[in-house]
Amino acid sequence: MSEENKPSPRFLTIDQVATELNIGQPLVRGLLKSGELRGFQLGGRNIWRIGADDLQKYIDNAYRKTAERIAAGELDEMRTEED
Question: CB under 8 Å to 66, separation ≥6 — which residues?
C-alpha cells in the first residue's frame, strides 16, 4: 500500500499532536492534564494516545473561541509569533 493510500491513524502520540499543532510536547501534556484536549493513558508508563477526532474537535473549538474573542473585541491587535 502506498503512503498516499494509507489510512490516517485513529490515535496519535503526544509527539504527533505536537507536530500537527506546531507546539511543544509540554504544552500538549498541559492540554491533556487540564482536560482541554481529550486523551487517554495506557499503562503506568506515561504513554498517552489522542484520538484523531478529539484533536480535530480541539482545533474546531479553538477556532470558535478565537472567533468569539474577536467578536467581543478582546483581541484588538493581531500580533504574529515573531512579535
Answer: 75
End-to-end CA distance of the chain: 44
Q: Is 23 helix (H, G, I), strand (E, B) or coil?
A: coil
Element (DSSP H or E) covering residue 14: helix 14-21
**Cell numbers linked to 80:** 504574529
- What is the rounded distance in angstroms from the CA atom of residue 20 to the CA atom of residue 38? 15
- Give the separation between CA 18 and CA 2, rounded to whole angstroms: 25
SS3 8: coil
Over the stretch 34-78, which tens digit does the pLDDT of each residue have?
999 999 999 878 899 999 999 999 999 999 999 999 999 887 666
Closest by CA to 48, choosing from 77, 74, 12, 23, is 12
